[in-house]
Input
Amino acid sequence: MAKRIVRRRSPIHGNGVFAACDLPARTEVIEYRGTLRTHAQADRAYGNDVDSGHTFLFTLNEKYLIDANVRGNDARWINHSCAPNCQAWVIEHASGDPRRDRIVIETRRRIHKGEELTYDYGITLAERHTARLKRIWACRCGSKKCTGTLLKPK
Output
């Protein structure tokens, strides 16, 4: 099977993921993979690092998250956009076991070969969204709908 996506430098930020062929709408592109951690384990490993403006942690459910810093795949390089062409979905396992839930990235619309894949990170922080934090979590997507920050209102 031909490779559907490729990772390379992005005009948005750092690395990015691009369509290696045309992708139809509502197509599952990749599963977000990494090490399964509890929220407490991630807090111990990374502390409350809201000042970095960078994360590979993806909330899976109330108990767990995926840490793509460890055994992560190319899904961790998909950049944020305020006008995304993809959507991240949490797929709950039929058994009800939250450890077996998964995160998949799916196209929202047709994506043309060479186009960068993006989704809305939807980052929420408990901290007050100060001007300083908004600068740290600045959005670089360049869309006409850009809010200027990756942070979502509380």
About this structure: The domain at 5-121 is CATH 2.170.270.10 (Beta-clip-like).
